[in-house]
Every structure is written in structure tokens, then in C-alpha cells.
Design a protein that fits this description.
Blueprint: E1 2-9, H1 13-22, E2 28-31, E3 48-49, H2 56-70, E4 82-84, E5 87-91, H3 96-109, E6 114-117, H4 118-124, E7 135-139, E8 143-145, H5 147-160, E9 164-166, E10 171-177, E11 180-185, E12 190-198, H6 204-210, E13 219-229, E14 241-244, E15 250-254, E16 257-261, E17 266-267, H7 277-290, E18 300-308, E19 315-318, E20 325-329, H8 339-350, H9 357-361, H10 366-369
Parallel strand pairs: 1-2, 1-12, 2-9, 5-14, 12-20
Antiparallel strand pairs: 3-8, 4-8, 5-7, 6-7, 10-11, 11-12, 13-16, 13-17, 13-18, 14-15, 15-16, 19-20
Helix pairs in contact: 1-5, 1-8, 2-8
The chain binds flavin-adenine dinucleotide.
Flavin-adenine dinucleotide binds at residues 9-10, 12-15, 31-34, 39-42, 44-48, 170-171, 199-203, 207, 223, 225, 261, 304, 306, 331-337.
Length: 376
Amino acid sequence: MSVVDFVIIGSGIAGASAAAALAPRASLAVLERESAHGYHTTGRSAALFSPLYGPAPFRALSVASRDFLTAPPADFAGHAILTPRGVLNIATQTQRPRIEALAAAAARLGVAHALVDQAACLEMCPALRADHVVAGLWEPGAMDIDVEGLHQGYLRQARRAGADIRLDAEVTALAREAGAWRVTLASGETLQAGAVINASGAWGDVTAELAGVAPLGLTPLKRTAFIIEAPEGADIGAWPAIIDADEGFDFKPEAGRLLVSPADETPSVPHDAWPEDLVIAECVERMNLAADIPVQRILRSWAGLRTFAPDRHPVIGYDRDAPGFLWLVGQGGYGVQSSEASGRAAAALALGEAFPADLLALGLTAEEISPARFRV
Ligand SMILES: Cc1cc2nc3c(=O)[nH]c(=O)nc-3n(C[C@H](O)[C@H](O)[C@H](O)COP(=O)(O)OP(=O)(O)OC[C@H]3O[C@@H](n4cnc5c(N)ncnc54)[C@H](O)[C@@H]3O)c2cc1C
């Protein structure tokens, strides 16, 4: 039987980033049920780094991840993880307060931004309709993320530091015995770990129940994405990502085509999510009000589960009532861009070290992301 300090359940971006941060200081095994590391939500994202996107704790975690993502160690991926994109949050007259609030948040976080007028919006994305968009919030520092490169980079770092990383390794039972966890796999093999880190995404509450730990009330929300041709003759390469101020839709260039999302949030059970035609059709209608982008054909579509805690904030920390059970869940729609700092925070809390000073300086405390807030 393998004996390790930590077992991490789930090798998505959350488990991988925590493994990279922990492996140099502890022995660990990362156990993934599927045959590929990014099979679920991590492999289905829109690959955008926009620290203004999401609730305050995610904004802090994303800002704190920026330096690493901008300049990872030379042997991390061998190429850039972030490439320039920029985000333009667009608003109608009635949506103006939304982008003004976003501008105030950007100022608080020290994120470069500018409120821009209609002419500037149409210059950045000529397909936008002048009878719809009246202003925008421009975030020049937003980037495209090479998600696969980032994910594999974390796993490589962890492996080099000695982590045992396994695919086709579903955890089926968890039992606390004599101050340690006995972790049973579907194959029948067992491992012993001082602590388990629950990074199982949409299955976060299911994994807790395996361990006899009370669930947190996590909700997986399905989000769809699809690829369409760029408008004929349009030079879309330099378009920013466009986000509707009410999150009714968003789109961005993707390898010469457009990646569009209805920004849907359909409550789901944990499963292998798939897209629905009606959701895509309604999105095309909404997008058509704001932009002249003819949609002849959907070239590809997919869906993934963005999993949220009841307050939509991340959950990172040991369970008060279950010794050696650390939650690393609720990454919602921001788990890639915030991954480096989330992994560091998880590692510090797992090892009982001080909460990272850069996060404290950004106004984020361990208490705000602790599962204890759900244990009254
Ligand atoms: C359409 C879409 C667009 C998005 N766009 C962005 C974006 O632009 N920027 C951004 O930062 N984020 C984005 N996100 C969100 C981001 O993808 C997620 O926050 C992130 O991938 C969550 O990572 P995770 O590791 O928690 O989950 P997952 O990647 O789902 O990993 C959890 C893993 O746990 C495994 N597992 C579960 N139970 C067990 C078990 N019993 N034993 C072993 N393994 C188990 C699962 O197989 C799974 O692989 C988007 C998401 C979607 C769906």
C-alpha cells in the first residue's frame, strides 16, 4: 500500500495547480478517474484571463496569479502561457451602471482599464451595432490562456518533484482510520494519506459524501460554447473578447474563427455535460441584437460544468468537522485564470503555513474562502 502525505482527488486545473505547489514539500498522489487530465471542465473553458471577471475573491486570486502566468519558469511550458487579447465589456444605455461599477472595481484592484465611448467600441470591433452599444469598459491587460500548456505545466512540475500522478484512478471509498485516510480506488488498490484534498470539481459534494463529510451545497452550472466562421472579409485577429455587460453572451477570436458563449448557467447534476441546440439558437438571436455577425453554421459546440459554492466564492481550506479533509472546489467560471494563486493558497493551508502575503495584500483572507463559513 502506498503511503503519502496527501492524496489529491481530481487532476483538473485545481488539483494540478495544488499538486505543483505542494509536491516540492510533501509526498503526494494525484488521482484522476478519467483517461485524460483535462477531460471535464478544465478542457472545456473559453481560455480567457480577465481579472475583472468574477466575484471579488476570484479577482484577487487572478491578479495574484498574473505574474506567474505572464512569466512562468523557463522549463514550465517552453512557450508563453498568456497572449494579448483585451476584453471590451459592452453596454447599452441601460447597462451603463454595470460597466461603471466594473471600472470602480478595476481601480480598486489596480487593473488597467478605460471607459470608452461608442466610436472606440466600434473601432475595436466594427461588427458591433451602433444602435445597441453606447459605451464600453476596455480592459487592455486581458489575455488568451494556453490552458493545455498551463495544465500540463503544473502536472510536469508536480511530477518532477516526485508526485505520483495517475489516470484511470477513480476514488470509490474514503475512510479515516487511526489519524490517516484510507483511499480505495475502483481497481481495489488502497493508499494511505495523512490528508485528502478534494479537487473533484462538479463531484465535490459527491467526494465529500464518500468520506462521510457533510456536503457544502455545491451547484454545477452548465455553460455552452460554440465555434462559428468569422464574418466574411472581417479581420478579426485584432478583435478583443466582447462581453455583454449583463453576461447575455460573449465572443472572441479563436484560431481565425469566433468562439461564442450564451453565458448560460443551467443547474445540473455532476455529469459529462453536452450542449443543447435551443440554448445556442437563443444566443445567436441575442448576439444579433448587438453585433452584425451572420451565423450560417455551428462548426463545433461543447458544454462544461462551472461549479459554484452557495455564495459563488471559492472554497479552499480544511473542513472544521473532518480532520485531514481539505476542500479545493467552487472555482466557478474563473478556475483557470486564478489557478496559480489558488494552488499556492491550498498548499499553504494544507501544510498549516501562513496564508500567502500577496493575497492578504489584495484584501483576501483565509476566512473568506474557508469551508467554515458554511458550517454554522
Ligand atoms: C464554457 C466554459 C468557459 C469557461 N471559461 C473560462 C475562462 O475563460 N477562464 C477561466 O479561468 N475559467 C473558465 N471556465 C471555468 C474553468 O474551466 C473551471 O473553473 C475549472 O476548469 C475548474 O477546474 P477543476 O479542476 O475544479 O474541475 P475539473 O476540470 O472538472 O476537474 C475535476 C476532476 O475531478 C475528477 N474526479 C471527480 N470525482 C473523482 C473521483 N471520485 N476520483 C477521481 N477523480 C475524480 C473529474 O474526473 C475531473 O477531471 C470556463 C468553464 C466553461 C465550462
